[in-house]
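Pinned message: reference record for ASST-domain-containing protein
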Amino acid sequence: MAPLWSSASVVLSLSLGAAAWPYSTYSSMGFQPPQLEVNQTGTTADGLLFLGPRGGVQPAGQAALIYDNAGNLVYEGPEEVTANFMVQQLNGSDVITFWAGDMLDLGFGYGTVHILDNTYQEIHTVTLTGDFVTADGQTRESYIDLHESHITPQNTLLVTAYNVTQHDLTSVGGNSTDYMLDSHFYEIDISTNEILNSWSALDHEDQIPLTTSHQKIGVSGTSENPWDAYHINAITATNHGYLVSLRHMWSGFYLDHNGTIIWHISGDTGGDFAPSGNTNFSWQHDMRVHNETDDGLILNLFNNANTGSDSEGDTTGLSLSINLQDKTVTGLKSLSDPNDPIKSVSQGSYQLLGADEDANVFMDYGSISKVKEYDGNGNIVFTAQFGDDNAVASYRGYRCQWSAVPFWKPSLYVNRTSDGASVYMSWNGATDYDSWNIYAPSSVNSTAGPQIGNATRTGFETRVDLTDLPTNYIQVSALQDGNILGSSEVVPF
Ligand SMILES: *[C@@H]1O[C@H](CO)[C@@H](O)[C@H](O)[C@H]1NC(C)=O
Ligand SMILES: *[C@@H]1O[C@H](CO)[C@@H](O)[C@H](O)[C@H]1NC(C)=O
Ligand SMILES: *[C@@H]1O[C@H](CO)[C@@H](O)[C@H](O)[C@H]1NC(C)=O
Ligand SMILES: *[C@@H]1O[C@H](CO)[C@@H](O)[C@H](O)[C@H]1NC(C)=O
Ligand SMILES: *[C@@H]1O[C@H](CO)[C@@H](O)[C@H](O)[C@H]1NC(C)=O
Ligand SMILES: *[C@@H]1O[C@H](CO)[C@@H](O)[C@H](O)[C@H]1NC(C)=O
Ligand SMILES: *[C@@H]1O[C@H](CO)[C@@H](O)[C@H](O)[C@H]1NC(C)=O
Ligand SMILES: *[C@@H]1O[C@H](CO)[C@@H](O)[C@H](O)[C@H]1NC(C)=O
Ligand SMILES: *[C@@H]1O[C@H](CO)[C@@H](O)[C@H](O)[C@H]1NC(C)=O
Ligand SMILES: *[C@@H]1O[C@H](CO)[C@@H](O)[C@H](O)[C@H]1NC(C)=O
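Predicted structure (C-alpha cells):
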C-alpha cells in the first residue's frame, strides 16, 4: 500500500516499532512484560493498573496486563493484541472484560470481547456476525471493532463495528463511486450474542453531513483504504439512549433509543451549545456521561488535540458541563502535567476514579505509552511509562479495584544448586496473597510433606534458596493471613 498522508496518525500509531524498552523475565513463567517506570508523587486511588500494550514490546509481553503501583506484574493474559482491558460489573459481580483480535493499520479491527470472572474463567465470549465488508477482503468469525466493550446498567454490551461501503464522495473531494467506512454500534445480549439494537452513522447523513468530517479524504477512497469519515470510538448508555463519540467529527451525538439524534456537541463550534470557557476539543477519545438529569450532564473525555497530520495543542483530560436548559457548555476541568506536556496523536482514555467530579482521574495517553493520575485539584500524583513514545501503545488504560483467586494452581520452578535448590514461586493473577510455604513431599504423588521453608511474597515471583533438602521434591502453597489459598504441583528436581 502507498504511504497515506491522510491516515499518517494511524500509520504512526498502529504500525509500531521494534522492541527496545526493558522487560521483565521470570523463572516460573515465560512472560516478558514491559517494565513499568513509575514516579509516584502523591496519593493515588486504590486499585491495580490495567494495560494492553502492543507493538514495540516482546511478543511474550503483548497481552492484557495487570500491574501494581510499584510496577510489579500481577497478571498476564494470553499473548494477543487487546483493547479495553478493565473491570466492569455484570449482574452485580466484578468481571474483567477485554477485546482481542486483529488491529488493522487503518485504525480499527475485527475481534471478540472476552468476559472473565474473578477466577479468570471465561464466562462469556461475545461475537458479532453479519454481512460486513472488510477492508482486507477477508471474512471474520466476529466483526466487533476494538474501540468499545462497555457493559450497560442493563447488563448488555455496547460495541463498535466498521463496515466498508461505496458512497458518493464528490462533496468531500472524492468521486461518485468511492469507498468509505461506515461507523456502526451494536447493543448485544451478553448471554446469547443476540443483537438488541444497532446504529449506523451513514443512515443519518442528513444530520451528520460528510462535509463536517475533519479527516481529509487524501488518497483514501478505495475499497482497501476506505475514507474514515467518522471514526466511532466510544458509546455510553444514557437515560434516553446513547452518547456516541465520532473522533473525526470532533463531536459527540446524543441519541434516542431509536437512533434519532437529539443533540450534538462539537469540539470547535460547540454544536448545539454555546461555549463558555475552555471547551474546545479535537480528535477525542473515551467520551463519557456522568450525573445525567433532564437539565444537563457532565461530559468527560480524552482530548487528543492531535493527529499525525494536525496539531491543535497539548493533549488534555477535559471535563465539560452541558446545560440542556440554556443550551450552554462550560469547561470544568482541563488536565495536563505541566512538567510533562504530551501530544498524543491517537488512542487514550479518561477514567474518573469515583462518583464525584473531584475524585482522582486516571488517563492513558494512547500512542504515548504513559499513564498518569491526577488528584481532585488537577495535580499530578502518579506517572508510569511502559514503552517508547509512539512505539508502544495501549488503546486505553485503567486503574481498577480487583480481587481474584485464579482457577489454576501456583507455578513453581526448582533449580538444583550444588547443596540444595533455588525455588521460584508465582501465581499469575492472584491479587491477595502475602506469603509462601515450601514443603518437601516424599514423591510426586505425595500430597503432604514437611514444611521446609517460608517467605514473604516479593512482587510477581518470589525466590528462596534452600540447602540440606530431605527429598528431591518440592511443593509450595500461597497464603493470605496464614490461610492457604492454593498449592502448586509437586515438582521433582
Ligand atoms: C538455574 O540455575 C543456573 C545456574 O545457576 C542458571 O544458569 C539458570 O539460569 C537457572 N535457570 C533458571 C530458569 O532460573
Ligand atoms: C456493509 O456494507 C455493505 C455495502 O454497502 C452492505 O451491503 C452491508 O449490508 C453492510 N453490512 C452491514 C452489517 O450493515
Ligand atoms: C443476569 O442475570 C439474569 C437473571 O438471573 C439472567 O437472566 C441473565 O442471563 C444474566 N446475564 C448475564 C450476562 O449473565
Ligand atoms: C474514483 O476514485 C477511485 C480512487 O479512489 C478510482 O479507483 C476510480 O476509478 C474513480 N472512479 C471514477 C468514476 O472516477
Ligand atoms: C425516535 O425518538 C425521537 C426522539 O425521542 C422521536 O421524536 C421519534 O418519534 C422516534 N421515532 C420513531 C420512529 O419511533
Ligand atoms: C476554540 O476553537 C474555536 C474554533 O477553532 C476558536 O475560534 C477559539 O478561539 C477556540 N477557543 C479556545 C478557548 O481555544
Ligand atoms: C454528581 O452530582 C453530585 C451531587 O451534586 C456531586 O457531588 C458530584 O460531584 C457530581 N459528579 C460529577 C461527576 O460531576
Ligand atoms: C520520573 O522522574 C524522573 C526524574 O524527574 C524523570 O527523569 C523520568 O522521566 C520520570 N519518568 C516518568 C515515567 O515520568
Ligand atoms: C504416581 O501416580 C501415578 C498415577 O496413579 C502412577 O502412574 C505413578 O507411577 C506414580 N508415581 C510414583 C513415583 O509413585
Ligand atoms: C515463617 O514461619 C515462621 C515459623 O512458623 C513464622 O514465625 C514466620 O512468620 C513465617 N514467615 C512468613 C513470611 O510466613
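Pinned by admin. Summary line: The pocket of 2-acetamido-2-deoxy-beta-D-glucopyranose (ligand 9) is lined by residues 443-445 (CB under 6 Å).
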